[in-house]
């Protein structure tokens, strides 16, 4: 199995020209640029004492370190490239881990507000399907972050836990502000979603009866890029584990909504067609799992949609939540 070094010092032995990088992330992670043996790398420090997303995931070290330890990152399909070359989980300070990565910043999707191209959207969805097809109904040990923690990552439970620790990160504060707004802004959606954001069990039970695969957990444009060969560069395995493929799809549609060059419906069909091209018959389960996946995205992002007021975006998600509600019974 791949080696996990026992100290960050060992990971960075011989490093020079070190400086901290400014990055668009909101979790509290620190990035540093270093040079080792004449090559440029980026180090990501994963510190449970600084990073609310690590505390929410609840995986010792970090989910990424656990994926590395199990060899899962070495078994990704050819369409996916991940930049990690070595990892450490510090034995003397167990809350701290670090990832040593190739510097791929110039190949990532720019952190702007403009829509991506039609070609980029199609490629990212095709390669999302490739990841899911590679682990379809696998018996491998891919259970890293439990589904319940994935769906409660952006919940009132997380926001309250962070407040109790005296933390002041932006996202937990916005989560705490947004969830109470949903009932007044979109009451039909809230009637379905709010009970699930406190206890997602009914949703998880039904989703578990549909085909399962390995999900990334944060398929957003800030974590994606394209290398010189056309592979998708993939970062930040925040809540990976076993789940429904349409959960990753729905997350992509929800978090990237302002930058999609085609409709959500068209994007979903691109993903479905990519699964079919890889030999998966989606007919028996597609409609049910897609509806539940979209409902699940509002369980994760209802707070964020509410903060934007009742616009076309929230109205679209409200209709999907209401339509999926009967599937929970």
Round the mean pLDDT to the nearest integer and report it: 96
* Count of DSSP strands: 11
The count of domains is: 2
Largest sheet geometry: 6 strands, mixed
Rg for CA atoms: 19 Å
CATH classification class of the largest domain: Alpha Beta
Query: Which second-level CATH architecture of the largest domain applies?
Result: Alpha-Beta Complex
Reading side by side through the largest sheet, how are the strands ordered? 1-6-7-4-3-2
Outline the low-pLDDT stretches: none
Topology:
Blueprint: E1 4-5, H1 8-11, E2 16-21, E3 30-36, E4 39-47, H2 52-57, H3 63-70, E5 80-81, E6 84-89, E7 96-102, H4 118-134, H5 147-151, H6 156-164, H7 170-185, H8 187-198, H9 201-207, E8 213-215, E9 224-226, E10 232-234, E11 241-243, H10 245-255, H11 264-277, H12 286-307, H13 312-324
Parallel strand pairs: 1-6, 5-10
Antiparallel strand pairs: 2-3, 3-4, 4-7, 6-7, 8-11, 9-10
